[in-house]
Amino acid sequence: MIHAFLFQFGKAMPRVKQPTMVSVGGQDIPATYYSASAFASRFSPLFELREMVALPAFLPPAYLSSYYVKLRPAFSPIEALERSLAGRAPFNRLGDQTLYVFQRKA
Asked: Distance between CA atoms of 28 and 39, rounded to whole angstroms?
């Protein structure tokens, strides 16, 4: 959503093509991305999903921090949305990254 807002439409959905190249330690490696729900379901045989939080859901991801710093006053209302909705469905599935809390099944 941030890329579209910044009129960077070519970067709006970089993970559609799988695998995608990711830079790790200065070297590009292929990485496959899964949806938040698909990733969580892989643990379902042994674990119960207790919580899922988008990191971030509405704010720019870390690699766009330079935009965020420049426009921080404009993001104040979005920060409030982030605090209240990042852990609630369907917004918890929108993050650049996702925090999962699992509990082992008895």
From this structure: 23
